[in-house]
Design a protein that fits this description.
Blueprint lengths: L3 E6 L3 H12 L4 E7 L2 H11 L3 E4 L5 H13 L5 E4 L9 E2 L3 E2 L4 H4 L9 H14 L1 H4 L3 E4 L5 E4 L2 E2 L5 H12 L5 E2 H8 L7 H22 L4 E4 L2 E4 L4 E3 H10 L18 H24 L1
Parallel strand pairs: 1-2, 1-3, 3-4, 7-13
Antiparallel strand pairs: 5-6, 7-8, 8-9, 10-12, 11-12
Helix pairs in contact: 2-3, 7-9
């Protein structure tokens, strides 16, 4: 997944700059440009080639239409996240998709964008909206809440343990996991017997059906008591975070929001926080030498 360049169009310059500062703290954002008028947005888009544009909900609706028409003429493929549903459902995003289909974007509000958590979720929603642009078969979100998307729609799992198994595969970065480890994590309070093995096989079968058949590709694989995930067609916020973390460009602070649905995620969070603390200690020692 590529990083985002963001354009913020807001009538109050100081508010736009404040939001830009918050966006730039997010590891998924490489640049942020602001302007106060819709008329200036086309010029800005041409210069910065933004992937995501946030428009102030208080700007006149007619200005949105003018902006979109101008962007179509200059053939800029932008992703739009509009700030509220103030009668804008009839508008279209560049590329021809109606806003009604982009429910995650219609709920965004500038007033809600006040913490790194909000900024993070906003950018991830843009990732989901831009799935085809980035060429990913499946988009998976782990921060804030666990969500699995294919062609702009959520993949539903009739078996909750199947979805949790997918989350575990993501946590393990797609590498092979043994049946014993899966059972130990997903059913920690149950004895290791034939009954729990049946629950394991049921989760395996449901995940294979829900994911592979929906997507039309064999992303989830099993063999001789092991399961794994082909991550080459998956765009995931956790993968991108880990890439930046290994390059020491981000710390573990965002991990507070990692897979909150599953208690076992606390082990991953604790491991990264401990590692991050050790990094800081090493850095401090190096600075003092």
């Amino acid at each position: 997944m590529k990083k985002f360049t963001i354009l913020i169009v807001h009538r109050v310059k100081s508010r736009a700059e404040e939001l830009a500062g918050l966006f730039m703290e997010n590891p998924y954002v490489e640049g942020c440009v602001t302007c106060e008028k819709v008329e200036d947005a086309v010029v800005c888009m041409g210069k910065c080639h933004a992937d995501l544009i946030l428009l102030d909900a208080e700007l006149p609706c007619s200005n949105y239409k003018k902006l979109i028409e101008k962007l179509r003429k200059v053939n800029i493929k932008a992703i739009f996240a509009l700030t509220c549903d103030n009668g804008l459902d009839s508008l279209e995003v560049v590329g021809g998709r109606p806003l009604a289909e982009i429910k995650c974007a219609c709920d965004l509000s500038f007033d809600r964008l006040s913490t790194l958590q909000d900024i993070h979720e906003c950018v991830l929603e843009a990732c989901i909206i831009g799935e085809k642009k980035f060429g990913a078969t499946v988009i998976i979100r782990t921060f804030g809440s666990f969500a699995v998307m294919h062609e702009d729609k959520a993949i539903h799992f009739s078996n909750s343990k199947a979805k949790e198994l997918l989350a575990l595969c993501i946590d393990r970065m797609g590498s092979e996991i043994s049946m014993e480890e899966v059972i130990d994590v997903l059913w920690p309070d149950r004895p290791y017997d034939d009954n729990v093995k049946r629950l394991y096989r049921k989760a395996i079968s449901n995940l294979r059906t829900s994911l592979n058949e929906t997507v039309g590709e064999t992303l989830f694989k099993t063999s001789r008591g092991f399961c794994s995930l082909d991550v080459s067609k998956i765009s995931c916020d956790y993968f991108m975070f880990m890439k930046e973390y290994r390059r020491e460009k981000v710390d573990a602070s965002v991990m507070d929001y990692y897979l909150p649905e599953y208690a076992w995620s606390e082990f991953t969070i604790a491991k990264l926080f401990f590692d991050s603390m050790k990094r800081k200690e090493r850095k401090n020692l190096g600075d003092n030498e």
